[in-house]
Design brief:
The protein is an all-alpha fold. Helix content is 65%, strand content 0%. Helix 7 runs parallel beside helix 10 (145-158) and helix 9 packs antiparallel against helix 10. InterPro entries: ARM-type_fold.
Length: 222
């Protein structure tokens, strides 16, 4: 399935722009203290999918799209992944896409302060709730570039210092991350390189030739 979001999602984003301004006009922390995040997570995880709109996920996305360690820790403590996984079955592609990007933002929180050899702190939780399988299903289902990038980076991040035992997943995700190294979009390019380095710390993920090539460059700053 190939969906061009450039014009369509821009139009949809304009519909929820006002909600973004309202949330960011006050501090995210104040909004959290007022119970906004808890209310959003409850809604996203319990309401029938047809009752959940782009405005709802966009409101939550705004919290994930923050460089604040405090906000990241606050979201982490609420284990929001089940709510986002619930949305992967939505019929609205824009909601699915925004959910996948939100998950990437959450999983990326704190990455710089953890040793490269440390497994991801959410790995077991995501295994338990079937989150990794859901991400791979999305990766295979949609040809859209945004969702390919976000889901592949999520999976690569979750398997840091872990072996990807699903051979199809290993082959497709690593191949896509290698392709992203040539991406013009700098964030995606750098993120793909870093995710490959994380995967390299489990040698079984890559053949010896690729392993040597990447580890020789792993001191490069990303």
């Amino acid at each position: 399935m190939n969906i061009d979001l450039d014009a369509e999602e821009k139009y949809e984003d304009e519909n929820v722009e006002e909600i973004g301004r309202k949330i960011t006009s006050i501090s995210r922390k104040q909004a959290n203290d007022a119970g906004t995040v808890d209310a959003l997570l409850l809604l996203l995880s319990t309401q029938p999918l047809e009752m959940i709109s782009l405005s709802h996920i966009y409101a939550f996305f705004i919290f994930t799209n923050s460089f604040s360690d405090e906000i990241g820790e606050m979201l982490y403590n609420r284990n929001p992944y089940i709510s986002l996984i619930h949305l992967f079955d939505h019929q609205d592609f824009f909601i699915i896409n925004r959910s996948a990007i939100s998950m990437w933002n959450l999983l990326n929180n704190g990455v710089r302060i953890r040793p490269l050899t440390a497994s991801h702190q959410q790995y077991q939780n995501m295994i338990a709730c079937g989150g990794i399988k859901k991400l791979f299903i999305l990766f295979k289902k949609y040809a859209n570039k945004d969702i390919k990038i976000s889901t592949s980076l999520c999976i690569g991040h979750l398997f840091r210092a872990k072996e990807i035992t699903d051979q199809s997943m290993k082959r497709e995700i690593i191949s896509y991350l290698k392709m992203l190294k040539n991406e013009r979009y700098q964030m995606a390019k750098n993120s793909a390189k870093y995710r490959l380095i994380l995967l390299v710390h489990q040698k079984l993920n890559l053949n010896n030739k690729i392993f040597r090539k990447i580890t020789n460059k792993k001191r490069q700053r990303f």
